[in-house]
Amino acid sequence: MAHAQQAGQSQRAAITSAGVARSTVRHWNAPAETSAAAPAALAAFIETPEGVEWLRRVQMAAHWCICEQGGAGVRVVCDFLELSGLSALTGASYGTQQAFQVKLEELIVSEATDLREALAKTMPHRTLSIVEDETWQDGMRLVAIEPVSNVILLEQVSAARSAAAWSQALEHGLAGFKVTVVQGISDEAKGLLAHVERDQGAHHSTDLFHLQHEVSKAMSLALRRAEQQAETDQTTAKARWQAQCAAEQAYHRRRHGPGRPPAFAARIDRALEAYMQASLARERAQAQRAESKALIGAFSAVDHPYELEQGHAQTPEQLQTHLAALFARLEALAEEVDLSERLCAHLAKAKRLTHSLVATLTFFFMTVNTRVQALNLSPAIEQAMLNELIPALYLERAAARSPGAEQRHRLRALSAQRLAPLQQPAHPIQSLDEATRRYLEQVAGDCADLFQRSSSCVEGRNGVLALYQHGHHRLSPRKQQVLTALHNFAIKRPDGTTAAERFFAQPHPSLFEQVLERMPWPARPARRRPRPAKRPYLTLVAA
Known about the structure:
It holds the Pfam family DUF6399. The protein has a five-stranded mixed sheet with strand order 3-2-1-4-5, sandwiched between helices. The protein is built from 21 helices and five strands. The longest helix has 46 residues. The chain is an alpha/beta fold and 543 residues long. The protein starts with a helix and ends in a 25-residue tail after the last helix.
């Protein structure tokens, strides 16, 4: 504002352009009584234009991190300003900070929309896999995420989840983007199936978790109850055996009359035999439950386009054989424990989903072969792409998703082993120029990313929204848009990229800095007026 006045503007015009109240400007120009609580050097710095800009940045950072990303309320920011001593330099009342937050959220949504439109104009054309699901916080929302970049394409309130509703929402979410949807990953809801296969003309990939979940519903609880019953039976049998042993010892300790003694040996032998049988039954129940758990986990180990032991391509026929073997053992286990008809139905439902897993693997290899053949490479380089480079990049991605450190290290070593021949000077791929090699790496990475079998990114997003809704009791439309904007344009991975940067394949200006330029200046603290002391209710009143 001082610069505007120096440029010849009147004070009224400068105040209007800065968006600051005249009373605030008069307070700035007057000696600030409330600054006495702050260090003199800091109070003097705040009186400079640079100091005001710094204070605005700190105040906005507090709202950005505490309220928007942290999920806390405005009163936490007020407490932060009070405890840090910044309340001596800026207004820390709830009304002041609440108005500041409203303006911040409006600008976040506005700037994110502008960034989205600007990046969409210059993005390269992309073929997309999308993950879709519904969330039920504050009504039903349709959510779609691109799983590789993790950018949220769609997060829209809807009254229906039919194929038509999904297709209309996705059309709006992809408006202006140069993309082609080739694959959708979701559960087996009929609306989603029709939306992906009929309306989008894309391949539908079943979420592997839903298959495992059906198997778990069939086996886990029943086997756990059988194990608990076996433990109870073992404890009871052991107590009976010990009781018979104690009865024999008590009989021999006391004096007794003539007559045949009880057949303690036979009783103890029968009790011991029952105890041994119960112990064996418990061990068998434990082994069955452990085997069931291992079989459920084995689905994740076999459902890969490249097997994780040597990194070789797995044909759809091989995958079908592995899945059939797993279900054959599960069905034998179900027969051993005598599962009910209702639970066997869950197992049968899971088995029906195997055709979708095999179809996804077929789609993957057909699409990869088509993309590589379209490059018109020499036979040697084409085979290197298909047999070495793409498998190596897939193993690297599988390593990043592995839960155990040992598995991660092994897969990364295997990936490096598959890449080693391509890095030799004598390999034909090294005769290509650097730009071509980089392009081939990009195509191979896109091919490796094509295999998607999980909708966990949408489930994770739904969990985040549930936590916000739990803390705030409701999510307003503006707050929902703010959370989406921060997810796409502010939250960064360890490599320093945002979801939007990965999706649009180009950097973008910092959303924080863009919003900061348009935020209003912080209000100066008001003069604190002493509150009158509260009189006791039973104060004597003069007659």
